[in-house]
Amino acid sequence: MGKNGPMPDFSTWIAVNDLISIGLVIIIAIVGRFLLVRLVRGVTKRAVTRAQTRREHQTNAAEKLLSTVTMANNERYEQRATTLGSVITSVVSIAVWTIAVLTIMDILKVPMAPLLTSAGVGGVALAFGAQSLVKDFLSGIFMIMEDQYGVGDLVNTGEVTGTVEEVGLRVTRLRDATGTVWYVRNGEILRIGNQSQGWSTAIVDVPVAYDEDGAKVIGILETVAAEMATDPDYADVLLDKPTVAGVNAVTATAMTIRMMAKTATNQHWAVQRSLLERSLAALGKAGVRSPAVYPYPNGTGS
Q: Has this prediction a pTM greater than 0.85?
């Protein structure tokens, strides 16, 4: 007997057996979620630990360059594993508690048919209204899983070319060469070109007079390539010794010799400028003439 009258009898509302069943469902849901989340975090933690260990064991420049060539970017692998672990944890939590709520409603004899019918109709309406959102999320998950690109990569999405600043499940943020920030929905990216994955290629076309000795010019350029390969300033940039491919084109006034070099990602522009500068200086020192400039009938140069 309470101070203000008799205590309410909850057994008239919910049977004791039902209360026990609901309690068991809640306990099982809590324990099940805990175990599943712990499993996901354990797998993610092991993946991150492996990535960290591999990164710590890279003690010299050669190993770091090899890691770049094989696209074993451990930092990005770590970020990818952490992101996927977070997503999977959220999905597991939602799934476990949804099943638990439906089970409790069944125990309480709540009519499920109208609820499921309403949920089905609402789900269809939501699917039509949010199909683009679902498409964006699924595309984002697969982009992260497949490591199509990461923060810092220079990519071409077809509509815009820029550096990736943020990779989300729905939107990717890019900044182009002018500084403009672009927000690209993941579901709208049909193709993507990644200029930062693996390595880049520096291509230099060196023009000389069309009647110069090609073998002599190639020999000079090979010397330039060898000197640049041993330059300590480019030890962490060049992945291999630059090569002289040979004569690439001949016109009425010029012969073009092509040089190529495999570089670390996004480092090919600096290598191209340096190769061209060194090549022109070496050719000028050796007396190799540049392409001739013929006057036009009006007296101006070409």
A: no
